[in-house]
Amino acid sequence: MNIRVVIVDDEPLARLAVKVRLAQQSGFELAGEFGDGDSAHEGIVALRPDLVFVDVEMPGKSGLELLAALPPAQRPMAILLTAYDNFALQAFGLAALDYLLKPVDDERLDEALDRARQAFPYRGAGRAAATPAPLIRTFSVRAGARTVLVPVAEVERIEADGDYATLHARGKTWLLRERLHNIALQLDPRQFHRVHRSAIVRLDMIAELRALTNRDALLRLRDGSVLRASRTYMPALTQALQHLDPSA
Amino acid sequence: MSVSTPGVQVETPLFVPVLAALPVCACMAILGLPAFGHGHAAAFRTLYFLACLAWLMPLALLQRTMWRRDWPWARMALALLVATYAMSLLNAVLGQRLAISLGLETGYHWEELVQGLDGCWLALIAFCAVHAVAAYYLSLQQARLHLAQARAAARDAELRALRLQVNPHFLFNSLNAVAALVSAQSNREANRMLGCVSDFLRATLAHDGRHEHSLAEELALLDAYLEIEKARLGERLRLNMKAGPGLLDQAVPYLMLQPLVENAIRHGIAPLATPGRLDIQLAREGAQLVVEVHNDGQRPAHTGSGIGLANVRERLRHLYGDAHQVEAGWRPDGRFGVRIALPLRAVEDA
Prior knowledge:
Mean pLDDT of chain A: 86
Radius of gyration of chain A: 19 Å
Number of strands of chain A: 15
Radius of gyration of chain B: 37 Å
Largest sheet of chain B: 5 strands, mixed
Number of helices of chain B: 9
Helix content of chain B: 55-70%
Order of helices and strands of chain B: HHHHHHEHEEHEEHEE
Distance between the termini of chain B: 37 Å
Oligomer: heterodimer
Structural class of chain B: alpha+beta
Mean pLDDT of chain B: 83
Largest sheet of chain A: 5 strands, parallel
Low-confidence stretches of chain B: 1-6
Distance between the termini of chain A: 39 Å
Low-confidence stretches of chain A: 125-130
Helix content of chain A: 25-40%
Strand content of chain B: 5-15%
Strand order of the largest sheet of chain A: 2-1-3-4-5
Structural class of chain A: alpha/beta
Shape of chain A: elongated
Number of helices of chain A: 7
Shape of chain B: rod-shaped
Order of helices and strands of chain A: EHEHEHEHEHEEEEEHEEEEEH
């Protein structure tokens, strides 16, 4: 059963960007698209989509006003789009699934859609729960002619490198022919967390976390390396760090 | 330093003549004290005191008028002497009038008028002098303040200009790379690159205009920039960025690292046929924050340090004076290195 999607954005090209990429995904179908808040309101009430992409800044009714005006029972899962964000907290207040900064890159969009897939079964009653991907314990990495097995427990962080990913483990790096997005799905979320479009970090490697004025944060790992944590990942990251068991 | 000798500023506040009058009045009052209890003497003293007091306001206004018209000092002094002398004479006339009404005299003695002017005349001259000195002092202070403000503004403008040199060519290069990716139909990569460029712009836009910010902010900016370079160079850039513990709150100049790293990549690693290593190290050494950027590269035949490094040097000189060191050059191991030492100081955050 497909997830039915409505796209609301006043810019046709912005709608196109979401539409084109949605078409490449399985499990989603476009139910409608709207260019302003008022027609979107009527459309959502009539079409009852499962998921809605909403631009926050629109002439007339803003994306947030649009969501707030819908009764909670009729409110679809929402992914907010914004070019210049000051809206994150409000968005989470309205239980938005995710919010994306424009221009939206593919990695980030894929991830938002994953969240939608995971949340979807819990929305209506009687739907089968999605089976999460099995967790992996070892990465097998091709290094020249041989294959090296890198235990997941030794991996400190993973960096995206186009369609590849670089594993950092015990001072060495290994190139893995897999996208970060797919790797993230196979890792234990209690141990590893996505902190940025292009980085996954093992939580117990984080030595310092410093908030930045733009609501991103900078992480310093125990080996001295530094990397950014994007604001869109911060709420989940802080929560995971609070629940991090030091003895684990 | 050339400061044009400040003429007394006309806009000295009105409390200045009042303050100047205080010591003069106090002197007159103290000198008059012994006269009390001696009948008529006290009356005369009081009359002269009040008369002088009445003259102070017109006298102060006269002085201000002369300052406003920029009279030379000698002319001003002469005019004031004449004016105060005339005022004293009028005081003496009032004194004779009092004597007549008290029945001590029967008529005016014009020939005695010029005698006994000392009390009033000296007091009025003293007032003029104190007033002039006070006003002059105040205007000098003001001129100093203006000068300091002007200097600070000039320094600020210069720093801003230096900072702005950093951005545009980087931006156009990135857009060019995006255009190339689009032409090659590498859509995913093009999108990713646009995301990186937006990240970097967002980070620079979040900056509030201060010349310094925390090392954490600086490293985040640098990381956003490096991500663009990583996308452009891929495997050819081997990056190693490490920071020591407890440094993230230290103050560093805004966009200090990015031009250094851009240099290292553009002139060092990008022209190489083989992958190049870039090492960025941040460490505490005593009371200093030491930044080191080392990169592989081909030593050029003619040496000229890039505009980026000159720009950074200039900004550091403005911000820290002698309290910093910059060393740059090719090292024995064949790599290029920049080492900057700054005073350690925690940033005061909003």
